[in-house]
Write a structure and sequence with these properties.
The complex is a heterodimer of chains A (112) and B (110). Chain A is an all-beta fold. Chain A is built from no helices and eleven strands. Chain B has 110 residues and is an all-beta fold. Classes of the chains: A mainly beta (112), B mainly beta (110).
């Protein structure tokens, strides 16, 4: 089924660890996005990509990095996790010419 | 910079009562406005967009460029409408990326 998938759903990890949050979509969308959302708060765009080998930083500064080597895959990496990175991370995708986004289920990250 | 403001963090209404969620935006050009909804334990999903002029699940929203508003309304709230609602703005000036408001939690009481 065409969809967008995020793994893991929940992650608790120690300070200083390297982590990668996975996001894959099977809808053939060319654009992909990462949003950060604290509970009950607004969504902040941290990274986006308009195609393979294209990545840009969003409105909210983030210590994370992303890559887009394949159209369907847009992983987010934190080289050294800190408690301040504790948040929910939402991945989304869209197709050029179509205005709506499709969101994944999110990854709730807790750094202890 | 473009901005979306949802002044109410929480709206609590009784079943059958009208509900209106306020959304104001700051942008001088021609924007695209959306409402997204997130039900408990579900993903964020598109509810409606202003260009479609549609009614979804009894909800409607009218873009008022003079007041830079895009309020979401439903005349008779149902318990299943309890959710988190986000207003979002999309403009060419921002590279067609979505900017979200802070969200409004709606609680419909029986």
């Amino acid at each position: 089924e065409a969809d967008i998938y995020q793994t893991p759903r929940y992650l608790v990890i120690g300070t200083g660890k390297k982590i990668t949050l996975e996001c894959s979509q099977t809808m053939g969308h060319d654009k992909m996005y990462w949003y950060q959302q604290d509970p009950g708060m607004e969504l902040h765009l941290i990274h986006y990509s308009y195609g393979v080998n294209s990545t840009e930083k969003g409105d909210l500064s983030s210590e994370s990095t992303v890559s887009r080597i394949r159209t369907e895959h847009f992983p987010l990496t934190l080289e050294s996790a800190r408690p301040s990175h504790t948040s929910q991370y939402l991945c989304a995708s869209s197709r050029t010419g179509v205005s709506g986004y499709t969101f994944g289920s999110g990854t709730r990250l807790t750094v202890v | 910079a473009q901005r979306v403001t949802q002044p109410e963090k929480l709206l609590s209404v009784f079943k059958g009562a009208p509900v209106e969620l306020k959304c104001n935006y700051s942008y001088s050009g021609s924007p695209e406005l959306f409402w997204y909804v997130q039900y408990s334990r579900q993903r964020l999903q598109l509810l409606l967009r202003h260009i479609s002029r549609e009614s979804i699940k009894g909800f409607t929203a009218d873009l008022n460029k003079g007041e830079t508003s895009f309020h979401l309304k439903k005349p008779f709230a149902q318990e299943e409408d309890s959710a988190m609602y986000y207003c979002a703005l999309r403009t060419q000036a921002a590279g067609n990326k979505l900017t979200f408001g802070g969200g409004t939690r709606v609680l419909v009481k029986p």
